[in-house]
């Protein structure tokens, strides 16, 4: 007979679900997609390195074919972090994995084995969420690291001097994965069409409200991430000109305020998602 | 743990890439930090600048004069503005006599500052003294050093050692002569010298300054002082050879001020880029400027090849004509 | 009298506008109980309510003396074997059992020992380190049963555990269930085949259209069912050879070959299944892979019961 009738505490229970869910998640169909998303920037970085070995780049730092260029390796890396990772990879993985934390188990009808065990349903979500974090971090962060070492030395960039910025970028991407995962974990637990809802949020709502004046931007994750990554913002294009003009008349939030906002979103979304899963009935199709 | 071997390999692989990357980056970062702290070219003459200096500058004149940029400039403009007049008054040939200059701004009372310049090079001391005396100066000895004062212009000059002269106000020059015997020079001012970490090693010229020093006010016009009141410190460095490249780092008083400063500069650059059509000669400069910010620091970097520098010269066309045979 | 393991009081379950269970009041005693009903009768709904997967729309249910919805502590005492064929295909049988035992609070060697015992009970020791994705239908049914019994619960809830098993596997699973009952523990097992249920217990609940029609030792039901021919579908290595053998049995009243399977009608299911098991154990008719009994076997009987 089993030892006691009490369900284990949330933490140990979540770790057990994590143990079960990590391998399942890492080798799921989505892994191919994640490999493409995280491998794309690495491929581009390799191509850039190959281009940099061409004779036109022999002019030295800040020059291509003897002409001055306004970009160097760290700038390209910053641009890639912002464009590929923070604005694409992180939210997209958040959408695809976060919305599927419970939905995948329901669709595969394996949720039965989790929900008939002596662990709180909230712990099931927390464990799956933890598995998502490890699963995505173990693929995305090394991808960032490879891109850093491939791209930063280009056009006279210095790996050492930019290392603190890399740490900030890694922290930001980790925070982004955590917050987007929690938000879309809630969307997945709550909405009937979570994937569509998530994609609309990432590619419709966020890009729009972030550049609009007003307070709508506070209802996004990208705004706070952007506030923590000013170095990674692209400059020189029309969008950055508009953004510069708009932000110059608005007081941006401080680092701690941005971190606090992200922490609040993360905690609130995760707690709400756990609560929804605790209370919701999952009727499996025959 | 029920993790499969394959899953374990993936985790170990990811962790391995991260560990190697972080360790490599850390080593590179420490290496990049060490040189500015111990080996940014600090001329020995810093010991002659009073430790309370709030602004400190260095220029490797020899390197500038020998640079490709100067060579190209010389083709257009054989003499710098005021170069001949300076030589007539001081007897110093900027092109040949000076190796480098160290300058400092030193607080003198609550609202005033005084400047001092230490010149290192090859000087004909007798000729310089004769010239000074011809212009109404008076020569004397102070602590075994030759001191020449020109009362009408409140300027004094002292021969500190072979090939090193100091120019500034008489009290400051005397203080300078006293320093090696007293508390030591500005190189013991860690707060100021620490700003050299923002200056790229091997810069041809650099300047650093603390604006948050309560003793250091008064040297800027009031309107400029109001604009930079939120800047605690700055450091700028430039490397001159084929062109000019450099960085300017401003250390804001706090992160919010840093962001405001960044936004201000970003907005300014954005507007300048929009208006570059009417000033095409600025395009090279604007294109080369990069603005970055981290914490309280805002950094502007630029990189101009010699063509772009020459474009910026206001009277280039006239000079071209004048230089034509 | 012993305390009932499941007590439902006017319990209903609605799926939107569709009723799954209608005002069910039932008290299931300890021991083995069979839940018999055609497809859509509400068997799975009742078992999901009993295992805390669904919340009653109305009424109450208590299992082993405590409510089950939102009470995960109670799940330690219950083992559930679902009817659907869903697994973590990339896990081996042993990995899967060990991981699920971890969720039930078993760790390290205790989990490994419990997994080994369960594998042995269902006869999967030799296949324990193969991936579940490569298991046959019968092996999948048995590993599903293993996860239900591994943590040695007080109450075993089995939803159609014999579906798709070959005769040998069917025999083994029935033996496991009967042994469980002999050990003084309780089992609620559902099926749409009376013959299967009867092999395990005589305590039967008849469920139809979301209502309990009858419960207890229902001889009359048995008689009624025997009046209706019973259809069995058999997937075999050599269907024609198997069909030739089956045609020799006097109680086989019709037979046809359908998509590589033998579909036989018999007037005496007990005798038919016994002889089929013997045939499968021997070699003369080739290997028998899967035996299923279509739901419509019971439909006519239940229609009769509802009318009377």
> What can be said about the biggest beta sheet of chain B?
12 strands, antiparallel
End-to-end separation of chain A: 32 Å
The total count of strands of chain B amounts to 12
Overall shape of chain B: it is: globular
Proportion of residues in helical segments of chain B: 25-40%
Helix and strand content put the structural class of chain A at mainly alpha
Order of helices and strands of chain B: HEHHHEEHEEEEHHEHEEHHEEHH
State Rg of chain A: 21 Å
State mean pLDDT of chain B (0 to 100 scale): 77
Arithmetic mean pLDDT of chain A = 82
State the share of residues found in helices of chain A, binned by percent: 55-70%
Strands of the largest sheet of chain B, in order across it? 4-5-6-7-3-2-1-8-9-10-12-11
Model regions low in confidence, pLDDT < 50 over at least 5 residues of chain B: 35-39, 316-325
Topology of chain A as a string of helices (H) and strands (E)? HHEEHHHHHHHHH
> Strand order across the biggest sheet of chain A?
1-2
Quote the beta fraction of chain B. Answer: 25-35%
Give Rg of chain B in angstroms.
24 Å
Number of strands of chain A: 2
Give the N-terminus to C-terminus distance of chain B in angstroms: 86 Å
Helix-strand category of chain B: alpha+beta
Question: Which SSEs are present, and which pair or pack?
Answer:
The complex is a heterotrimer of chains A (286), B (325) and C (308).
Chain A lengths: L9 H17 L3 H23 L10 E2 L2 E2 L4 H26 L1 H9 L2 H5 L5 H31 L11 H28 L3 H18 L10 H7 L9 H11 L6 H25 L7
Antiparallel strand pairs in A: 1-2
Helix pairs in contact in A: 1-6, 2-3, 2-6, 3-6, 3-7, 3-8, 6-7, 6-11, 7-8, 7-11, 9-11
Chain B lengths: L4 H35 L15 E5 L1 H6 L1 H9 L6 H8 L7 E10 L5 E9 L3 H10 L3 E5 L2 E6 L4 E7 L2 E5 L1 H9 L11 H4 L11 E6 L11 H6 L3 E10 L3 E9 L2 H20 L8 H6 L1 E5 L2 E8 L1 H7 L3 H8 L2
Antiparallel strand pairs in B: 1-2, 1-8, 2-3, 3-7, 4-5, 5-6, 6-7, 8-9, 9-10, 10-12, 11-12
Chain C lengths: L5 E10 L2 E11 L3 E5 L6 H8 L7 E6 L2 E2 L10 E4 L11 H11 L4 H15 L14 H13 L5 E5 L7 H16 L3 E6 L2 H7 L3 E5 L2 E6 L2 H9 L2 E7 L2 H9 L4 E7 L2 E6 L2 H13 L6 E5 L3 H12 L1
Parallel strand pairs in C: 3-8, 3-9, 6-7, 7-8
Antiparallel strand pairs in C: 1-2, 1-4, 4-5, 9-10, 11-13, 11-14, 12-13
Helix pairs in contact in C: 2-3, 3-4
């Amino acid at each position: 007979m089993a030892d006691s009738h009490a369900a284990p505490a949330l933490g140990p229970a979540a770790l057990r679900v994590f143990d079960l869910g990590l391998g399942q998640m890492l080798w799921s169909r989505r892994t191919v997609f994640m490999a493409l998303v995280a491998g794309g920037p690495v491929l581009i970085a390799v191509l850039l390195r190959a281009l940099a070995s061409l004779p036109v780049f022999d002019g030295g730092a800040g020059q291509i074919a003897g002409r001055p260029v306004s970009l160097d390796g760290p700038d390209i890396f910053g641009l890639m972090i912002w464009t590929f990772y923070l604005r694409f990879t992180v939210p997209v993985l958040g959408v695809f994995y976060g919305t599927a934390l419970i939905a995948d188990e329901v669709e595969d009808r394996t949720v039965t084995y989790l929900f008939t065990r002596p662990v709180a349903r909230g712990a099931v979500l927390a464990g799956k969420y933890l598995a998502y974090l490890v699963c995505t971090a173990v693929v995305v962060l090394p991808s960032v690291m490879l891109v850093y070492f491939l791209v930063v030395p280009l056009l006279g960039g210095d790996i050492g001097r930019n290392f603190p910025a890399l740490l900030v970028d890694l922290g930001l991407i980790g925070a982004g994965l955590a917050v987007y995962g929690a938000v879309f974990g809630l969307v997945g637990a709550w909405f009937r069409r979570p994937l569509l809802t998530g994609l609309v949020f990432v590619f419709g709502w966020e890009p729009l409200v972030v550049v609009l004046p007003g307070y709508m931007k506070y209802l996004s994750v990208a705004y706070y991430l952007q506030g923590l990554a000013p170095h990674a913002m692209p400059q020189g294009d029309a969008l950055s000109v508009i953004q510069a003009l708009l932000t110059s008349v608005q007081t941006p939030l401080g680092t701690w305020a941005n971190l606090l906002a992200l922490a609040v979103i993360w905690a609130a979304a995760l707690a709400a998602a756990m609560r929804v899963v605790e209370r919701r009935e999952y009727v499996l199709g025959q | 743990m029920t993790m499969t071997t394959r899953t374990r390999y993936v985790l170990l692989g990811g962790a391995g890439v991260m560990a190697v990357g972080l360790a490599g980056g850390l080593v590179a970062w420490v290496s990049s930090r060490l040189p500015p702290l111990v080996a940014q070219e600090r001329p020995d003459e810093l010991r002659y600048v009073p430790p309370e200096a709030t602004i400190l500058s260095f220029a490797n004149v020899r390197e500038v004069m020998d640079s490709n940029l100067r060579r190209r400039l010389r083709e257009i403009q054989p003499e710098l503005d005021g170069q001949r007049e300076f030589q007539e008054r001081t007897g110093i040939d900027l092109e040949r006599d000076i190796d480098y200059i160290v300058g400092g701004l030193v607080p003198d009372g609550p609202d005033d500052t005084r400047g001092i310049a230490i010149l290192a090079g090859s000087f004909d001391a007798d000729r310089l003294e004769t010239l000074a005396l011809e212009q109404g100066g008076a020569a004397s000895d102070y602590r075994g050093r030759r001191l020449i004062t020109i009362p009408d212009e409140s300027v004094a000059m002292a021969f500190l050692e072979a090939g090193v002269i100091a120019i500034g106000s008489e009290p400051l020059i005397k203080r300078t002569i006293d320093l090696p015997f007293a508390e030591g020079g500005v190189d013991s001012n860690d707060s100021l010298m620490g700003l050299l970490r923002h200056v790229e090693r091997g810069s041809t010229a650099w300047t650093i300054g603390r604006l948050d020093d309560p003793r250091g006010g008064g040297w800027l016009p009031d309107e400029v002082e109001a604009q930079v009141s939120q800047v605690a410190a700055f450091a700028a460095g430039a490397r001159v050879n084929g062109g000019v490249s450099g960085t300017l780092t401003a250390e804001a008083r706090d992160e919010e001020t840093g962001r405001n400063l960044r936004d201000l500069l970003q907005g300014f650059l954005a507007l300048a880029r929009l208006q570059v059509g009417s000033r095409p000669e600025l395009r090279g400069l604007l294109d080369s400027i990069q603005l970055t910010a981290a914490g309280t620091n805002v950094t502007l970097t630029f990189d101009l090849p010699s063509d772009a520098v020459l474009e910026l010269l206001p009277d280039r066309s006239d000079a071209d004509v004048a230089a034509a045979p | 009298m012993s305390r009932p393991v499941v007590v439902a009081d006017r319990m209903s379950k609605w799926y939107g506008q569709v009723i799954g269970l209608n005002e069910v009041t039932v008290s299931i005693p300890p021991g083995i109980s069979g839940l018999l009903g055609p497809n859509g009768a509400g068997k799975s709904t009742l078992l999901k309510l009993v295992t805390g997967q669904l919340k009653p729309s109305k009424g109450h249910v208590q299992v082993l003396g405590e409510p089950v919805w939102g009470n995960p502590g109670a799940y330690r005492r219950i083992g559930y074997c679902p009817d659907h064929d869903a697994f973590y295909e990339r896990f081996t049988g042993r990995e899967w059992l060990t991981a699920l035992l971890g969720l039930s609070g078993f760790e390290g060697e205790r989990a490994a020992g419990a997994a080994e015992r369960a594998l042995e009970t269902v006869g999967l020791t030799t296949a324990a380190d193969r991936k579940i994705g490569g298991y046959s239908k019968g092996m999948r049914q048995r590993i599903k049963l293993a996860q239900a019994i591994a943590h040695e619960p007080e109450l075993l809830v089995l939803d159609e555990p014999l579906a798709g098993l070959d005769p040998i596997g069917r025999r083994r699973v029935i033996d496991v269930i009967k042994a469980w009952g002999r050990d003084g523990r309780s089992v609620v097992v559902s099926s749409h085949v009376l013959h299967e249920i009867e092999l395990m217990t005589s305590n039967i609940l008849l469920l139809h259209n979301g209502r309990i029609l009858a419960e207890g030792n229902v001889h009359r039901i048995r008689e009624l069912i025997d009046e209706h021919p019973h259809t069995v579908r058999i997937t075999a290595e050599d269907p024609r050879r198997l069909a030739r053998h089956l045609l020799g049995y006097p109680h086989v009243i019709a037979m046809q070959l359908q998509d590589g399977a033998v579909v036989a009608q018999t007037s005496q299911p007990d005798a038919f299944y016994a002889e089929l098991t013997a045939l499968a154990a021997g070699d003369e008719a080739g290997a028998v892979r899967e035996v299923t009994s279509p739901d419509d076997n019971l439909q006519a009987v239940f229609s009769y019961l509802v009318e009377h």
